[in-house]
Amino acid sequence: MVVTADVYLPEDSELTVQEVNLSGSTLYAGSFHLGKYCETINNEYMLCRQEENDPRKCINEGKAVTACTLEFFRKVKKTCLAEFNQYSNCLDKSSGDYAFRHCRKTQGVFDQCMLEKLNLPRPGFGYFCEARVHDTKRPKPLPEPKAVYPDATPALPEDAEKKPPRLGSRFYWMTE
User: Fold this and answer.
1) Which of 5, 36, 79, 128 has the fewest CB atoms within 10 Å distance of its CB?
2) According to the UniProt record, where is the region Disordered (predicted)?
């Protein structure tokens, strides 16, 4: 990709944030509760990405998503660590594709702990597929102006002679 001098690139200090250094099975085990816990922040970030079409303009929203994820896993560590580790370990060891079907018992124990201690119920089936309206405080970005090309071919004048087609109309079935 070619970058010219007028393109703004953020500095490393703007991009540096504490990473979520967790394994795939750990993220997979907490994914449903994490999605519910950080729903508004994730929606704000995705709305920004969709509206702006430029990830550089959504750096702060991305940092907020990472901070929310870290906060969620810290709360899980304080309250439901044993249940979560058991569930994550089951997902990791029971199948090669982290299938939930092998770990329903440990999932139930973890879900019960999350409900009792963090008051965070597991979202129902299809919850994340439902349509929602997201209310945001960000101003709506201005629409891009329509491109104007000065060298466009001018249209025919209205009083120009329009001869009938030489070989007839290709819409011959529509003449009746």
Assistant:
1) 5
2) 140-168
